[in-house]
From TrEMBL:
Coiled-coil spans in chain: none
Protein's name in the database: EGF-like domain-containing protein
Upper lineage: Eukaryota, Amoebozoa, Evosea, Archamoebae, Mastigamoebida
Residue span, EGF-like domain: 1-37, 38-73, 74-111, 112-146, 157-236, 237-269, 520-550
PANTHER family linked to this entry: PALMITOYLTRANSFERASE (PTHR45756), PROTEIN KINASE DOMAIN CONTAINING PROTEIN (PTHR45756:SF1)
SMART domains found in the cross-reference section: EGF, FU
Alphabetical list of InterPro entries matching this protein: EGF (IPR000742), Furin_repeat (IPR006212), Growth_fac_rcpt_cys_sf (IPR009030), TKL_Ser/Thr_kinase (IPR053215)
Length: 673
C-alpha cells in the first residue's frame, strides 16, 4: 500500500518505483525523494495542488515568485514601492507607496505619479490628489493636471490644487461663482460700471488710482475721500470713520479729524477733561495756554476757550483771576463770580463764610464775633487761661477741670485736676482707687494692687503685698515670704520668723537664710552655716576642710572641743595646722622613738610629751644628763618632716613633759621651749 511507503501518500506510481503521485491536502510529492512534503512556506494552507505541488494562493502581502510554482515572496521583494499585492497567481501590485500607483498592464509594478500631479496622486488609481506649481486639476479629475492657461487664458495664478483663479490678467478679476475670470467692475456709490479693460477704468473713473500688473477682486487704492474696505474690497467714504475729515486712500486710517477730536491709532478720539486739541495728534492742558484754567473747549486746532477756572479763580471773559480783598468767591448759581464782602468781614469765601474779620472781631463758625473778653484774640479764636478756644469766646471753668476746650460757645473738659478722673459723661470725678492720678494717667496704685498696661489697678494675689503684675511681687504680706528669683510669694516651712516678707530666722541650725528664705547647708553634718559656708560642725564632727565635716573617729580623735580635737587616740599626737593639701590632720600617728604627745606644725616642734617623759627644746626624753642645770648647748627638735633640727637652750631649773617650768634667777620662761 502507498500509505505503508508514506503515510501522507494517497496514490503511488504504478511502475513500483516507490514514488508518490498524489498526496493529502496541503502536501505535494517531492521530485527527489518521491515522498510527500509540505507546500511553499508562504502558500496558504491547502492551496497547493496535491499532485503537481503548484501553489494556488499566497498568504496576505505575498505574491508568486513566478507562474506554476509553489514559492511565494513578499510584496516589497516583488516591488520595493508596493504595499499591497494580489495573492492569486496574477503577480500584480494593488497599492503603492506615496508618489506611486500600480501599472494596469505589463509587469503590474508601481510607477511614479504623473509629473503634473506634483508627486501627489491616489496610490491605487493614480488620480492626481494635487498639482505642481502652475497647474490645476482637470474636470473631471484624471491622472494629469493642466496649466493655468489651459484652464483660463486670462489666469495668472490659481488657488493651490483647485480649479480656482486667484490673480487675473490686467483688467480682469476672479469670478467667485464660476472661479474663472470676469471683466473688472468699479463701484462708485450705488452705481456699477461694466468695464472692458483696466485702461477703460482709468479713463472713466477717478476711483481706481493705480493700475497694477495683476488684479484680484479687491480695490487696493481709492480716490480722495475714500479708503478700501478689507471685507468687501470696495471703496468706502472717509465719513464712515467716526468724526473723520480726511483718510488714507490705501488703508482704513483717518489722517485729519473734526474738531475737537485728534487722530489716534487710525481713528478719532476726544481729548481728556482739562485738555484741548493742540495739533491733529496731540492734546495739552488748558492751563498751559490760559493761566489757572481748569477746563476749556477747542475753538480750532491750537486755540482754546476757558470754560471753568481753577478754584477760587473766576473767568472774566479773557483770563482767570482771583477776587479782590473786599470780595468773596460765589458759585451758588453754578457760574463762579466775585461778590462784595459783608460788614466786619475783610475776606469772605462765600456769602455765608467769612475767612478774616476786621479788628476787634474774630472768626467763629464762619461769622465775625466780637473779641471783647479775650485775653489775646487771634484770627479764628479767643485765647483764654487754661482753655483751648476754637471759634469761641472764653467760658467759665468746669469744676475739677484742669484744661478745657471751648468750641462755638460749648465747653468740654479735656484733663481733670490731680486725683480726678474724666468719666464717659465728660465730668471730673474724685477717685479712691489709685495712688496718684495726673492728667488722666495713673502713676501708682494703693497697697495690695498693681498698675496694669491698661492704666487700671488690679488686686495682687494677697493683701498688704506690693506687686508689679498679678504674679510678680516686690514685697509679700501676711506670713508669706518673697522668692527673690521668681518674684513670687510663697511659704517656708523651715522659717521661724518673717519680717517684711523676708525670713530673718530659720528653725534649724543647719539651715541658713539665702535670698530671703531658708536653705539647707550644702555641707553635711554642719551645725551652723553662714554665707553658704559651714562654720561649726555637729557634735562629734570636726571641720576637716572648707565645707566638709568628718566624724572624729575618721581622724583618730578621742575627744573634741569647739576649737578642734582636744585629745587624740593612743599612739597619735595632735597637729594644729593644715597639711599641704589644705586639710586638718588633727591627729598624726606617733613615732615611738619621738614620744611626742602634741606636735605644732607652726613651731615645727613637739610642745607636749607623753606622760613620764620630759621635754627639752621640743625633744622628749625620760631624763636629761643636766636635768637640774644645763649649760648652753646644741639640742635637736622635730621639724615638719620628723627630722632633727639644732637649737640652743638656756639653763632650766625644773622640767616636765610640757617643757621647762622654772628658770634660774635673771631669766624668764619662754613658752616656746
Amino acid at each position: 500500500m502507498c500509505s505503508t511507503f508514506d503515510l501522507n501518500c494517497e496514490t503511488c506510481s504504478v511502475d513500483s518505483s516507490r514514488v508518490c503521485t498524489t498526496c493529502r491536502s496541503g502536501l505535494r510529492p517531492n521530485t527527489t525523494s518521491g515522498k510527500c512534503v509540505g507546500c511553499g512556506l508562504h502558500c496558504v494552507s491547502g492551496a497547493c495542488d496535491p499532485t503537481s505541488g503548484i501553489c494556488n494562493q499566497c498568504v496576505t502581502n505575498y505574491v508568486f515568485q513566478s507562474t506554476n510554482t509553489d514559492q511565494c515572496e513578499s510584496c516589497s521583494t516583488f516591488d520595493a514601492n508596493c504595499i499591497t499585492c494580489a495573492s492569486d497567481p496574477t503577480r500584480k501590485c494593488k497599492q503603492c507607496n506615496t508618489g506611486y500607483y500600480p501599472k494596469t498592464s505589463g509587469d503590474y509594478k508601481c510607477q511614479s505619479c504623473d509629473v503634473t500631479c506634483g508627486g501627489k496622486c491616489d496610490t491605487t488609481t493614480g488620480v492626481c490628489a494635487g498639482c505642481q506649481s502652475g497647474y490645476v486639476p482637470t474636470s473631471p479629475i484624471t491622472n494629469k493636471c493642466v496649466t493655468y492657461n489651459t484652464f483660463d487664458t486670462n489666469c495668472v495664478e490659481c488657488v493651490d490644487d483647485k480649479r480656482e483663479c486667484a490673480i487675473c490678467q490686467s483688467g480682469m478679476y476672479p469670478n467667485n461663482v464660476k472661479h474663472s475670470l470676469s471683466v473688472m467692475q468699479v463701484v462708485l456709490g450705488n452705481a456699477t460700471h461694466q468695464l472692458v479693460s483696466a485702461q477703460a477704468v482709468l479713463q472713466t473713473t477717478s476711483l481706481l488710482i493705480r493700475q497694477e500688473k495683476y488684479f484680484s477682486r479687491k480695490c487696493k487704492v481709492c480716490a480722495n475721500g475714500f479708503y478700501p474696505d478689507d471685507a468687501s474690497g470696495k471703496c468706502v467714504a472717509c465719513a464712515t470713520i467716526t468724526n473723520c475729515n480726511t483718510c488714507s486712500s490705501d488703508t482704513k486710517k483717518c489722517l485729519a479729524c473734526k474738531d475737537p477730536f485728534i487722530q489716534k491709532s487710525g481713528g478719532c478720539e476726544s481729548c481728556p477733561i482739562g485738555e484741548y486739541k493742540f495739533s491733529e495728534t496731540t492734546c495739552i492742558k488748558c492751563y498751559n495756554t490760559i493761566d489757572n484754567c481748569n477746563t476749556c473747549d477747542t475753538i480750532s486746532v491750537g486755540k482754546a476757550n476757558c470754560t471753568a477756572c481753577i478754584y477760587p479763580h473766576v473767568f472774566n471773559g479773557t483770563k482767570c483771576e482771583l477776587c479782590q480783598p473786599n470780595e468773596y468767591y460765589d458759585n451758588t448759581t453754578g457760574t463762579p463770580k466775585c461778590v462784595k464782602n459783608d460788614i466786619n468781614c475783610d475776606i469772605l469765601s462765600n456769602k455765608e463764610n467769612c475767612l478774616d474779620c476786621s479788628d476787634t472781631f474774630f472768626v467763629s463758625n464762619s461769622k465775625c464775633v466780637s473779641s471783647g473778653g479775650c485775653e489775646s484774640p487771634t484770627l479764628t479764636s479767643c485765647d483764654c487761661s487754661d482753655q483751648i478756644s476754637i471759634n469761641s469766646k472764653c467760658t467759665s471753668q468746669i469744676e475739677h477741670c484742669k484744661y478745657q476746650k471751648s468750641e462755638k460757645g460749648v465747653s468740654t473738659c479735656i484733663t481733670c485736676d490731680d486725683d480726678n478722673i474724666l468719666n464717659y459723661g465728660g465730668v471730673c470725678e474724685q477717685q479712691s482707687v489709685y495712688g496718684l492720678v495726673r492728667n488722666g494717667v495713673a502713676f501708682g496704685c494703693k497697697l495690695g494692687t498693681y498698675l496694669t498696661n491698661q492704666n487700671t489697678c488690679d488686686s495682687c494675689s494677697g493683701s498688704n503685698a506690693v506687686c508689679t503684675t498679678q504674679n510678680k511681687f516686690l514685697k509679700c504680706g501676711d506670713s508669706t515670704i518673697l522668692d527673690i528669683e521668681q518674684m513670687a510669694c510663697t511659704t517656708d516651712t523651715q522659717c521661724n520668723s518673717v519680717v517684711d516678707g523676708l525670713c530673718v530666722q530659720c528653725k534649724e541650725n543647719d539651715f541658713e537664710i539665702s535670698k530671703g528664705r531658708c536653705s539647707k547647708c550644702e555641707t553635711e553634718n554642719c551645725d551652723l552655716c553662714v554665707g553658704r559656708k559651714c562654720q561649726i560642725c555637729k557634735l562629734n564632727y570636726l571641720m576637716y576642710s572648707a565645707n566638709r565635716c568628718v566624724n572624729k573617729e575618721q581622724v583618730n580623735c578621742e575627744r573634741i572641743s569647739k576649737n578642734g580635737c582636744a585629745q587624740c587616740k593612743a599612739g597619735y599626737y595632735q597637729v594644729d595646722t593644715n597639711n599641704i593639701e589644705g586639710k586638718y590632720d588633727f591627729c598624726t600617728k606617733t613615732d615611738v622613738e619621738l614620744h611626742c604627745k602634741y606636735y605644732s606644725l607652726n613651731t615645727t616642734k613637739c610642745i607636749e610629751c607623753q606622760d613620764g617623759f620630759n621635754m627639752k627644746v621640743g625633744v622628749c626624753a625620760e631624763q636629761f644628763d643636766d636635768l637640774n642645770k644645763v649649760k648652753t648647748q646644741n639640742v635637736s627638735v622635730i621639724n615638719k618632716k620628723n627630722k632633727l633640727k639644732s637649737q640652743e637652750e638656756i639653763d632650766c631649773l625644773t622640767r616636765n613633759n610640757k617643757g621647762c617650768q622654772r628658770c634660774p634667777s635673771g631669766y624668764y620662761l619662754n613658752k616656746n621651749g
